[in-house]
Design goal:
By secondary structure, the chain is mostly helical. 45% of the residues lie in helices and 5% in strands. Among the domains are: 22-62; 90-141, no CATH class. It has helices at 22-56, 99-109, 113-116, 121-134; strands at residues 72-74, 80-83.
Amino acid sequence: MPARMKKKPTEESKPTKPTLSRWQSFKRLCLIFFMGGSLLCTLTLAVVLGIYSHLAKAYDLTKLGQMPERTIVMDFKGEILGKMHGENRIIVPLSEVSPWFVKALLAREDSRFREHGGIDLRGVVRATLRNIKEMRVVQGA
């Protein structure tokens, strides 16, 4: 018999793969879902911001403060069909508006305006959860 004979691998001599416990499998699955969800959210945000950026370029910001004094109904050719009933609007510059009126408006419409500066994330989350609960749009932020 040669001095160096190879033995047949037996079940005992084969290296075994380490098995994961249920807890480790659960943690790994949660990590995969979290990473996948994060990637999906990031891609969705990138697409939304890209579309918003593209659409925002189309707006003429010089017309932002211009508002018709009365609602005008036009046809598809742009010709005036008529004016809606109701009161005529009078455009008043902010410098002529009482500061008390501005404070009252902010207090009634958005009491946390000075804290968030324009986008109330707490209000957006509240309105979103309420709309999901009601299965229709019932609130805005």
